[in-house]
Each structure stands twice: as structure tokens, then as C-alpha cells.
Design a protein that fits this description.
Layout: H1 12-31, H2 49-65, H3 81-85, H4 103-123, H5 127-154, E1 174-177, E2 180-184, E3 201-205, E4 208-211, H6 217-225, H7 237-246, E5 254-257, E6 260-265, E7 268-271, H8 283-292, H9 300-306, E8 318-324, E9 348-351, E10 368-370, E11 379-380
Parallel strand pairs: 8-11
Antiparallel strand pairs: 1-4, 2-3, 5-6, 6-7, 8-9, 9-10
Helix pairs in contact: 1-4, 1-5, 2-4, 2-5, 7-8
Bound molecules: fe (ii) ion.
Fe (ii) ion binds next to helix 2 and helix 5.
């Protein structure tokens, strides 16, 4: 199979160990589900965990075991697997109603898939298989992040407390960016990439200045306390439409107490941490706060330009950019065709990675994307000069 993409540098044993270690992270989350948590509430931004776990195992079997050299897909170990767990064909709102495997049967399916994938990596290792194993690894890591988002959204206690940075200044320091040709996208032979990074090209970026760090909870509180959610001029038309339709008057996980704002972090309420990045804002809230500060969101190219300059801190949260998620010139989908393509132009591009993002996904060129109204992501923002 010629996959026309970078070849993984990992050995079979490294891939086997990584897959096992990531599965342990998933099991730690499963162990923290409440008693009625296997299905959980029906919600457009959630999946039932029982479905999602099955989907992760199905995905690994689909790509690492069932993919044939001629492009055909062999049968699953599980009757009806595709009808249950294929995210491209199983409508989201039906996932609570399917005859999903119960947890014990899911464990048995997972064990069979893991054993077969391990045997295949040891016995029939090729660059194409290495690519597919890494695809499954990253896919599972992204679902794990989605589970952390769901734990925050639902107020579940997580497997471990997060270490949040608490040293951001109220007024961010800024870096001057000179006009430059900025390289976006990746080349061949640089390790695993998703199709949306194909291929390397340059774009001209005008001079601006950009914050060295994310906007903090304290800085965002100043916007809220100044009536920012009622200030029509701070919001884009789409942002104002969202604000009025949703009735939002403050960040989603905040409440006002006698002693000031409090934030819910998973199952615990606490005071604002003044120097902690403001997370769980959507793109509209980020744009409005930036506009109120007399600034704007940076473009992805400006953001990537800044990562090459000393003093630019990133990785404390996903960061909304001003860019719609869109294909680079010459884009072609990879074999997992629905990774990027269905979401172009409707989703917004984010960069950086947050407190629940695995280090393997924190690359300055990695392109994340969410619908602009999503508030459940561990996403914040920084600002740039207008
Ligand atoms: Fe998935």
C-alpha cells in the first residue's frame, strides 16, 4: 500500500508500548465514571461513553487489522461492528439507542483486537502499518481529551487533579512580529501528520504584536464585570447572534458568590485563580473580549510565526485563532477521509494544546478545530494588535 505520507520512525515495540499506555489512560477515566455514567445524558456535544469506548476499539480494528492491501475492508471480529461503531455512518443522536456491547463484552473485544494488533506489529511490520498504528494512537488520545472535556462538562471527579499554571500577568507582555514569510504545513518524512497539515507552503504575514501568554481568568473577569456580555459593539454579528440566542451573560463554568467569581473545575468550586489562563470560552467570547481590549484574535500564521521567538509561551490551553478551519493548497484527504474534510469552513482553527492534551499532540504545527460556539473545550485565547 502506498500511503504517500511520512513514515513513522517508531519501532514495533515502541508502538505496542504506546498503545498500551494510552489504553491505561482511557481505563483510568472509565474507572471514574459514575454508576449511571455508561450512557450519560443525551447531549449533542457528548457521546455515550459505552459507545465511545466501543468506537475507539472498532477504529483500531478497522485500520490496523481489517485494512487490506488492495483497499478492501475485511470483516470485523464482531458481527454488526460497523453498524454500531462507525462514526461516519452512525448518526450521533441514535448512539444512545443502539444495542451496544455491555462493558464485559467490550473488554473481551478490546483484548482480542489488542492481541491481534500486537501480533501484527511484531510479525508483519511495514511503514504502512506503522502509520495506521499511529493514526489509532492519536485517535485514542483525542477521544481521551474529549472524555476529559465531558468530565468537566458533567462535573465528574477526574482520575487526577490538573496542574494549572497560575503566573500569568493581568496585562500580558507583548512580542513584536516583523512582517515575514511564515511556513505553514508539514513536509514529508517528519513523522506522523494528519491530512490537514499537507503540505508545506509559505504565507506572507504583516507586522503586528502578539501577547506572550494567554488571557488570564482575572483579565477576563474585568471584561465580564465591565458589562462585556451586554456590549454589542464588542461582538461580531455571529457572536452577538450566539450570545442573544444562548442568553449567556458570563463564562459557562462561573458563578457569582458573596466574595466574587467562582469557577467550577470538574466537581469542585473554587475562587478564580488570577494568573490562570481563561479556558472554556468559545470563539465568540474570545473575540469579544479581545475587541473590548482594543485587540483581536491572532491568525494561525501569526501564532505559528510567534512560536519561533523566545518568550512566546504556549501549551497552557488550546487557542482560538481568527481563521476558519480550511484546507491548505493541494489538500487531499488521507485514508481516514472524515478526519478533516467534513469540518472545513464550518469549524474554527485552534492551536497550542491544553492541560488535558497529550504531549504527543502538542506540536506548533498541529491544527485543531471546533465549532466556534463550543465552550466545553479547554480553549482560551491571546490577542494581537489590530
Ligand atoms: Fe473517533
Amino acid at each position: 500500500m502506498n500511503l504517500h505520507r511520512p513514515v513513522s520512525g517508531s519501532t514495533p515495540e515502541q508502538l505496542i508500548a504506546s498503545l498500551m499506555q494510552v489504553r491505561e489512560q482511557l481505563h483510568a477515566l472509565v474507572a471514574c465514571l459514575p454508576e449511571d455514567g455508561w450512557l450519560g445524558p443525551r447531549d449533542p456535544i457528548l457521546n455515550p461513553p459505552l459507545w465511545e469506548l466501543g468506537h475507539i476499539i472498532w477504529f483500531q480494528e478497522r485500520w490496523c487489522l481489517r485494512t487490506q492491501a488492495d483497499g478492501r475492508v475485511a470483516d470485523s471480529l464482531l458481527p454488526d461492528a460497523d453498524a454500531l461503531y462507525d462514526s461516519s455512518s452512525v448518526p450521533h443522536d441514535t448512539r444512545w439507542d443502539l444495542a451496544l456491547l455491555p462493558p464485559a463484552a467490550l473488554d473481551a473485544y478490546a483484548n482480542r483486537v489488542t492481541a491481534a494488533v500486537t501480533a501484527r506489529l511484531r510479525g508483519a511490520f511495514t511503514p504502512a502499518l506503522a502509520y495506521l498504528a499511529e493514526l489509532c494512537l492519536y485517535h485514542e488520545l483525542m477521544h481521551i481529551e474529549a472524555w476529559w472535556m465531558a468530565f468537566q462538562y458533567l462535573g465528574y471527579a477526574p482520575p487526577a487533579a490538573l496542574t494549572l499554571p497560575d503566573a500569568l500577568p493581568l496585562l500580558a507582555s507583548r512580542l513584536a512580529l516583523a512582517e515575514a514569510d511564515v511556513t505553514l504545513g508539514s513536509g514529508t518524512g517528519e513523522g506522523f501528520i494528519f491530512d490537514n497539515e499537507k503540505w508545506r507552503h509559505t504565507v506572507r504575514v504583516p507586522a503586528c504584536d502578539i501577547d506572550t501568554s494567554l488571557v488570564s481568568e482575572a483579565a477576563f473577569a474585568a471584561f465580564v464585570d465591565a458589562g462585556g456580555y451586554q456590549l454589542r459593539t464588542a461582538w461580531s454579528q455571529a457572536g452577538w447572534d450566539w450570545r442573544t440566542a444562548s442568553g449567556a451573560t458570563q463564562p459557562v463554568y462561573w458563578r457569582k458568590s458573596d466574595v466574587g467569581w467562582q469557577v467550577r473545575r470538574f466537581d469542585q468550586w473554587s475562587p478564580l485563580l488570577a494568573g490562570t489562563p481563561m479556558l472554556h470560552v468559545n470563539c465568540f467570547e474570545a473575540e469579544a473580549c479581545a475587541a473590548w481590549l482594543g485587540r483581536r484574535l491572532p491568525s494561525a500564521a501569526e501564532w505559528q510565526h510567534a512560536t519561533g521567538i523566545d518568550g512566546f509561551d504556549w501549551g497552557a490551553g488550546w487557542e482560538w485563532t481568527r481563521d476558519a478551519f480550511a484546507p491548505y493548497p493541494g489538500f487531499e484527504p488521507d485514508p481516514y477521509r472524515d478526519y478533516s474534510q467534513p469540518w472545513f469552513h464550518t469549524h474554527q482553527e485552534l492551536r497550542g494544546g491544553g492541560p488535558v492534551t497529550d504531549a504527543r499532540l502538542k506540536r506548533c504545527g498541529f491544527r485543531n478545530f471546533y465549532l466556534p460556539q463550543r465552550r466545553d473545550a479547554f480553549a482560551g485565547f491571546r490577542t494581537a494588535s489590530t
